[in-house]
Write a structure and sequence with these properties.
Blueprint lengths: L1 E4 L2 E8 L11 E7 L2 E8 L7 H5 L4 H8 L7 H16 L5 H30 L3 H21 L8 E2 L2 E2 L7 H23 L3 H7 L7 H7 L4 H4 L7 H4 L20 H25 L18 E9 L2 E9 L7 E5 L1 H6 L2 H5 L4 H11 L3 H5 L1
Length: about 375
């Protein structure tokens, strides 16, 4: 379809919903003047499964595995946020050992999520090798998850009040071995990409979103930190004992696609640093707190947010003192961050649109829910 627009021909095209560069079933209605993007509109809902409504018809424990299916690239983070929200509702805190294992697994999951992002984003830009490298390291993490709880992708690792399982023999050793092997591998990624002139030309000054716009759109996570805002919930509102860990919050200043790449690469290094500290802190003890077999939280509400790989992941739970939640509302970072696409894409080229979608780092299971 085309129409006359300001004495020129404007072309309206569908990008997706079956398109590899939309990173899932995302449909983007793109308005073009030649190859220049004059506007975009995101059409979502192709993967909607009514997760929040399902919660109202399941017990608190029964609903826990459903959250793993939202951001399926970072299932462990989803589970942690939900468990923390219910624990706040029933005033229970996970034991020390459980909290440390939670941090180790969540940070490994953050690395795995960023690896999927980096490999697929590089593929979008035209670099094939990083995908194979990133999948190689991610496989090591998934092997640890599989040994721990039997699952690799939708990893259901936690229980309300603590952990689902005790760690297996050799868990700490394998985590440290992964960190030893992983750090030099990150250097390899950077050797391939960071100073690569094609990579820089494709990403620098593309998709700029400054700090004020990030705040206006509610953008969080690496996108916000790439614009110079040093905001990380692990530091600002610590949970699961994150205040005991020594790590830095990577930031940049330009807020473009390149800076978002740099922030995520640096975050992987910091996550490996946290995993090492977690293994050193791990001491013997119980793995689950005192939680009633039949869970009936007192009437009330709770909101807990965590720093998921893609940004602030929040759970709002309302209890009516029955065995099922009265209401569960999820604040997914992919959904909120996606609304900034139009702002970043206007005035760029179609090829730049692919780069911008990639650096938002969306998972449509989380956008649509």
């Amino acid at each position: 379809m085309s129409e006359t627009f300001l004495d020129s021909t404007e072309l309206v095209l569908n990008m997706g919903p079956q398109h590899p560069s939309t990173h899932g079933v995302l449909r983007v209605i793109v308005k073009l003047d030649g190859e220049k993007v004059t506007g975009t509109e995101c059409v979502i809902g192709y993967l909607h499964r009514g997760v929040e409504k399902i919660a109202e018809n399941r017990t608190y424990a029964m609903f826990a595995p459903y959250v793993d299916r939202m951001d399926y690239v970072a299932a462990i983070s989803n589970g942690l946020g939900y468990c923390l929200a219910i624990e706040k509702l029933i005033s229970v805190e996970a034991p020390e050992r459980a909290q440390v294992v939670r941090v180790i697994l969540t940070e490994l999951n953050r690395i795995a999520s960023h690896l999927v992002w980096l490999g697929t984003h590089a593929l979008d830009i035209g670099a094939l090798t990083p995908l194979f490298y990133c999948m190689r390291e991610r496989e090591d993490i998934l092997n640890i998850f599989e040994k721990y709880c039997g699952a690799r992708l939708t990893t259901h690792a936690f229980r309300i009040g603590g952990l689902q399982y005790e760690t297996y023999d050799g868990f700490e050793k394998e985590c440290l071995e992964f960190c030893d092997k992983f750090m030099p591998r990150v250097d390899e990624y950077e050797e391939l990409l960071t100073e690569n002139r094609i990579w820089k030309e494709r990403l620098i000054d593309v998709g700029i979103l400054n700090a004020e716009d990030c705040k206006a759109y509610g953008v969080t996570g690496p996108m916000l930190r790439s614009a110079g805002v040093e905001w990380d919930i692990r530091k600002a509102l610590p949970y699961s004992g994150y205040e005991k860990y020594d790590f830095e919050i990577p930031t940049r200043t330009n807020g473009d696609c390149y800076d978002r790449y740099i922030v995520r690469v640096q975050e992987m290094r910091q996550s490996a640093r946290i995993v090492r500290q977690g293994v050193e802190m791990l001491a013997a003890g119980p793995i689950i707190g005192k939680v009633p077999k039949v869970l009936k939280p007192p009437m009330g509400e709770a909101y807990v947010s965590i720093e998921a790989p893609k940004g602030e992941l929040g759970y709002y739970v309302v209890s009516d003192a029955s065995t099922q939640p009265y209401r569960v509302r999820v604040r997914p970072p992919s959904f909120v961050n996606l609304q900034s696409l139009d702002k970043m894409a206007r005035g760029s080229l179609v090829a730049d649109l692919v780069a911008v979608i990639g650096t938002i780092d969306i998972v449509l299971g989380e956008v649509d829910r």
